[in-house]
Design brief:
Layout (H helix, E strand, L loop, with lengths): L11 H24 L4 H27 L4 E2 L1 H13 L5 H13 L15 H10 L13 H4 L2 H8 L1 H20 L2 H24 L20 H6 L6 H6 L15 H11 L3 E2 L6 H20 L8 H33 L3 H41 L5
Length: about 400
């Protein structure tokens, strides 16, 4: 069990935003609903503006500025900066720099600003309520951001921008709909609280709840339901091993509206150089984890429990050796491709890529067969423990 966190000075600004405002919402929103009721427009404003502020964080603060997963034109950068400012999660410079520190020291209880190993509460919100050393601003990892005029403008005028953006968005909507207080309470206050916790889920629940199909070297998880709540950020296991990909939901069927927004902007000429991890690397990580899980299954009853299990273990090892040889062949060809740009070599590379696709499918099928056989053996052993 981890030692209790040392006491740190209270961050009163964070306490106001993250504790006092929710208390106000709990009191004011039911009272207003009881005496006046909310208009449909106020409810619509809450959901639409939640998307605006949340996507400002996911597409802007996170994937553009923290990870440089794509490049944005000046108009798009300004729009995303204003959307992120509307979310009130500190400046881009502070947010993105802290997030880079999180990736570099993920799960470290002393250096990760919001390490889940300090508990759910700490990772979700506690790290902001006090001035812990791990969360102190240190921009040595953000020289690119220090040169970004949009980032530095927002950092310099952050508080006035927060006030101006809220006034420019909420007041016209409230006036146009004839429900000023309803829009301020739902589209302003309630939306802000939801936007905060949607982001905080990434730091807390996405490191606790879900699967790890790509790596088990950190606590990050993939979770479809959290992806819905977090605008596509819920595929967090993938993100932590391939952080520079502009996609989090890498499969075609995975829910990732942030990815779709960035892709759409690229088609409109507002974004370019969208970074994608090669499918080969993704498959490699997936298969490596499948091999690892197969080995873990074998360890349930220890080594060489029965001759049958030893046989399955041997087959899995053979599959992994064959797979590793295929990876080596592919790597050598890629090196040759860099050294010599010849048409014959390009064709050979293309043929090898096609071969790899087939090899991946065959390896996955054979591994699935071996794991099914292993599961059957383990079930039989559980039913007949006396035979061990």
């Amino acid at each position: 069990m981890n030692a209790p966190l040392p006491k740190a000075p209270i961050n009163w600004i964070a306490v106001f935003a993250l504790v006092f405002l929710p208390i106000v919402a709990i009191i004011a929103i039911p009272l207003y609903a009881y005496h006046h009721d909310f208009s449909v427009s106020a409810w619509v404003s809450m959901f639409v503006l939640l998307g605006v502020s949340s996507l400002g964080i996911t597409a802007g603060y996170h994937r553009l500025w923290a990870h440089r997963a794509y490049e944005a034109t000046l108009p798009l950068k300004i729009i995303l900066m204003l959307m992120g400012t509307f979310a009130v999660q500190n400046s881009i410079l502070f947010w993105a720099s802290g997030h880079r520190t999180h990736h570099r020291h993920v799960d470290d209880i002393d250096q990760d600003p919001y390490s889940i190993n300090n508990g759910f509460w700490y990772a979700h919100i506690g790290w902001m309520l006090r001035n812990y050393p791990a969360a102190e601003a240190n921009y040595k990892n953000a020289p690119d951001l220090l040169k970004d005029k949009v980032v530095m403008f927002q950092d310099k005028y952050y508080v006035p921008l927060v006030i101006a953006v809220h006034a420019a968005i909420l007041l016209p909507i409230g006036w146009a709909t004839g429900d000023m207080w309803g829009v301020l309470l739902l589209g302003g206050l309630m939306r802000l609280i939801l936007s905060h916790h949607v982001t905080f889920f990434i730091n807390s629940l996405c490191h606790m709840w879900g699967k790890r199909p790509y790596t088990d070297e950190n606590t990050a998880r993939d979770n479809f339901w959290l992806a819905i709540a977090t605008w596509g950020e819920g595929y967090h296991n993938y993100h932590h091993i391939f952080q520079y990909d502009y996609r989090n939901g890498v499969k075609w069927w995975q829910y990732d509206p942030t990815k779709w927004l960035i892709w759409s902007c690229s088609k409109l000429g507002l974004a370019k150089n969208l970074r994608r991890i090669p499918s080969f690397n993704i498959k490699k990580a997936e298969l490596a984890m499948k091999f690892k899980y197969a080995e873990q299954d074998l360890a349930v009853y220890g080594h060489n429990v029965t001759e049958d299990i030893s046989t399955v273990k041997s087959r899995i090892a053979q599959e992994y050796d064959a797979f590793s040889q295929t990876l080596n062949d592919w790597t050598k060809l890629k090196e040759l491709e860099i050294q010599a740009k010849k048409a014959s070599m390009a064709e050979k590379i293309h043929q090898m890529d096609d071969k790899l696709k087939v090899e991946f499918q065959l390896v996955e099928q054979r591994l699935a067969h071996h794991r099914a056989a292993l599961n059957l053996l383990v079930r039989n052993l559980k039913k007949n423990p006396a035979s061990n």
